[in-house]
Fold this sequence. Notes:
- The chain is mainly alpha-helical.
- About 45% of the residues lie in helices and about 10% in strands.
- It has a single domain, classed as Annexin V, domain 1 (Orthogonal Bundle).
Amino acid sequence: MDFEDEIRKLQTDLNKFCCECHAPDPDWVSVNNGVFLCIQCAGTHRAYGVNISFVRSLTLDLIEGIQIRTLKSGGNRKFLEFVQLYKLNKYQQIKEIKYITRAAQLYRDLLKEAVE
């Protein structure tokens, strides 16, 4: 199965929408956060730096191996549930600090552990 098929299988449920603004058909991902993003929100994520959000295009970049496994382990629903559990307001604008918190780093670490 090629990477396009793998990604298509992941684009179900809340992954059909941008994790931040809920725009339909996101074509970008934050690999280390395991979330699907629209192009506008991906641009904001890029500004965080790759240690906070490693952004890849589903149409321009090759996503393979550990990156696909990270997206499988994550997903928008799982991230939003984690945000709610740690009382990080899931409706905060991404320009705010929800990705630059200890809880968000813990989430990224858990995703990384899950795929290693």
